[in-house]
Automatic annotation (TrEMBL):
<dbReference type="InterPro" id="IPR027304">
    <property type="entry name" value="Trigger_fact/SurA_dom_sf"/>
</dbReference>
<keyword id="KW-0143">Chaperone</keyword>
<keyword id="KW-0413">Isomerase</keyword>
<feature type="signal peptide">
    <location>
        <begin position="1"/>
        <end position="31"/>
    </location>
</feature>
<dbReference type="Pfam" id="PF09312">
    <property type="entry name" value="SurA_N"/>
</dbReference>
<dbReference type="InterPro" id="IPR000297">
    <property type="entry name" value="PPIase_PpiC"/>
</dbReference>
<dbReference type="InterPro" id="IPR046357">
    <property type="entry name" value="PPIase_dom_sf"/>
</dbReference>
<protein>
    <recommendedName>
        <fullName>Parvulin-like PPIase</fullName>
    </recommendedName>
</protein>
<dbReference type="Pfam" id="PF00639">
    <property type="entry name" value="Rotamase"/>
</dbReference>
<keyword id="KW-0697">Rotamase</keyword>
<dbReference type="InterPro" id="IPR050280">
    <property type="entry name" value="OMP_Chaperone_SurA"/>
</dbReference>
<feature type="domain" description="PpiC">
    <location>
        <begin position="205"/>
        <end position="302"/>
    </location>
</feature>
<dbReference type="GO" id="GO:0003755">
    <property type="term" value="F:peptidyl-prolyl cis-trans isomerase activity"/>
</dbReference>
<keyword id="KW-0732">Signal</keyword>
<keyword id="KW-0574">Periplasm</keyword>
<dbReference type="InterPro" id="IPR015391">
    <property type="entry name" value="SurA_N"/>
</dbReference>
């Protein structure tokens, strides 16, 4: 049985991005807050406390297909887009989780369709050649030719057409915003100066780079939404991609960039998120954190101090000495050999002696220059920052991958961080306002859409 509905659900704004499925782009948009795009809290609906439903509405009875203002979304469209998410999670997605993802993919495709339709209504059409160029760049990011990338997509259960449709939607929406929204957004000089003053006043305080998955909830469904959030956290902790889950589940405007809030100070965050972030280590995930209007899952991507040079931006010159173990080497044999390797490498007196020690041990020696500390695993970052020139780290590795040490040959410390330029701050503020108006724009499109679910 078919039913026609008008879509009124508050969902995320999908910002333009040609690199589909690629790493998140930095953004300094603040965390989602209730009512930031003009919607009223659920209390304003004046809902009765005791509700009786007349008739039945079971979304599980419907197939995941829809017709949006005459444009058809098929089950195949959903399957192919879902396949990309499953692939991003290593192919390990539980059946229950897969069904939740399927419903979210349908909602995303509906938004995408509305964006393409609105662009076309404003005489904006993306040429096939431009879509192909973007597709080729995505393939290059995967270090594949377009032909190889097409084969890869089919092997994953997706298709080039699915990626190209997403590219078309992003390009069309971006061009529409540049024409209908961006020209009417202005940021005054005094506003920028105010931001500069606040930055200078906050110098030396903590600043976080946070990823957020925001899930809206009402008192009636809070328990269910919290359970969904726990399921998402569990999937991520098992190896799922935080960015992939943010793109598909988060209802914040940053969903299109994998939930990346960019660098934010505690004062820019809701109190609940600021408190949670303050107790986290880089790489940790926390939540679900109750916030006004719902729950947030946050991921601490990085941490630094405002306008203060970060030691992890230091550039290091390193020598790497490594030994491998022959196939069949037991853990006990590897431990004995690693201990001898450790004793010898700890006697290294400066990088000038590292090559000789390496030859005596039969180790491979590789020079690595201009290595930024923050690009290394967190365990190595702290260790290297404590080393003096010429000292070596303790051995690290495994039986399968061998054991290695790093010898510090030189370090260029970072310069003191300066205040962002007037133009950078102004551009960021303009982007934030464009994103907010874009969310309202898309919300209005949903409210006017006629959607026929099959």
């Amino acid at each position: 049985m078919k039913s026609v509905v008008r879509s009124t659900r508050l969902m995320k704004f999908r910002a333009p991005a040609v690199a589909v499925m690629m790493a998140c782009l930095a953004s300094s948009t603040i965390a989602q807050t209730v009512g930031d795009d003009g919607d009223m809290p659920s209390a304003a609906l004046d809902l009765p406390k005791d509700m009786t439903f007349f008739g039945k509405s079971d979304p599980n009875v419907r197939k995941a297909t829809a017709v949006i203002n005459g444009t058809i979304i098929t089950g195949t469209d959903i399957d192919q887009r879902l396949a990309l998410i499953v692939a991003a999670n290593g192919g390990k997605v539980a059946d229950e989780e897969r069904e939740r993802l399927r419903l979210q993919v349908l909602r995303n495709l509906i938004d995408e369709t509305l964006q393409i339709q609105e662009a076309a209504a404003n005489d904006i059409k993306i040429d096939k050649a431009e879509i192909d160029d973007s597709y080729n760049r995505v393939a290059a990011n995967f270090r594949q030719s377009p032909e190889q990338f097409s084969v890869y997509l089919r092997q994953q259960g997706s298709s080039p057409a699915s990626i190209k449709r997403q590219i078309e939607g992003e390009l069309a929406w971006s061009r529409l915003l540049r024409r209908n929204v961006q020209p009417f957004v202005n940021v005054g000089e005094e506003e920028v100066k105010s931001v500069v003053d606040r930055l200078n006043a906050a110098k030396g305080t903590d600043e976080f780079r946070i990823g957020e998955i925001y899930l809206s909830a009402s008192p009636e469904n809070a328990q269910q939404i919290s359970a969904n959030a726990h399921n998402i956290i569990e999937q991520i902790q098992k190896g799922g991609s935080f960015q992939a889950y943010a793109r598909q589940f988060s209802e914040a405007s940053t969903a299109a960039v994998g939930g990346d809030l960019g660098w934010v100070r505690p004062a820019q965050l809701p109190d609940e998120l600021a408190q949670a972030a303050g107790g986290m280590q880089v790489g940790q995930i926390a939540g679900p954190v109750p916030v006004p209007g719902g729950f947030s899952i946050i991921y601490l991507m990085d941490k630094r101090q405002v306008l203060t040079a970060d030691p992890r931006d230091a550039l290091m010159s390193l020598k790497q000495l490594s030994i491998n173990f022959a196939p069949g080497t037991s853990r006990e044999q590897a431990t004995t050999k690693a201990s001898a390797f450790a004793n010898a490498t700890q006697q290294i007196k400066g990088c000038g002696a590292a090559n000789d020690v390496g030859r005596s041990l039969g180790a491979d020696v590789v020079d690595n220059d201009n290595v930024k500390v923050r690009d290394l695993p967190p365990q190595l970052q702290e260790m290297l920052l404590k080393l003096q020139i010429g000292e070596a780290t303790p051995p690290f590795g495994s039986v399968a991958e061998g054991v290695r040490v790093l010898v510090l040959c030189g370090r260029d410390d970072p310069q003191s961080a300066g205040t962002p330029s007037f133009e950078q701050i102004q551009a960021q503020m303009e982007d934030d306002r464009v994103n907010k108006r874009a969310r309202i724009y898309l919300r209005d499109l949903r409210r006017d859409a006629v959607i026929d679910y099959n």
